[in-house]
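Cross-check.
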Amino acid sequence: MRIACIMAEGRGETDRLISEAAATLEAEGFVLNGIVKVLQDMPEGSHHCDMDVRVLADNRTIRITQSLGEGSDGCRLNPEAIAEAVAAVDQASSLDADAFILNKFGPEEAEGRGFRAAIATALEKDIPVLVGLSGGEGSRKGFMEFTGDIAVTLPADPDAIVRWVRG
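Predicted model, tokenized:
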């Protein structure tokens, strides 16, 4: 079983590294499952609330946030859209893949939900798993509890990330 995580400094840097690694691997012919964040510029003054993910198995893009309306100063994840993304990844878990990539092991995964079953399925099938971790203590602690001592932390270096996935 091979599982690695990435924690990069700077807003959006982990997402960028994981998305670029996925693009490099896909260009090399790797078959991937999981999701990556769709990188997009946010207009000045926005709250960075529009978040799309790309399902790697079928290249589908899903907006996982919802607008709370004018005057709102917060972001809101859309539970239905996240469930759609999880279902798409779970469905693709029955297919053979060369790697499983998840842009973020977040609070849902730390609590045993979200993409956690898909991660476990990939590990059981000896598919390398690459996940992003944010600065949140709960997510990091949940990841460490889930993986025990089998996870490695990769440097925030695109070449090192791709080399690790290649094996």
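Helices lie at 13-27, 79-92, 107-110, 116-124, 137-147, 158-166. DSSP finds six helices and seven strands in the chain. Passed to J.P. for a second look.
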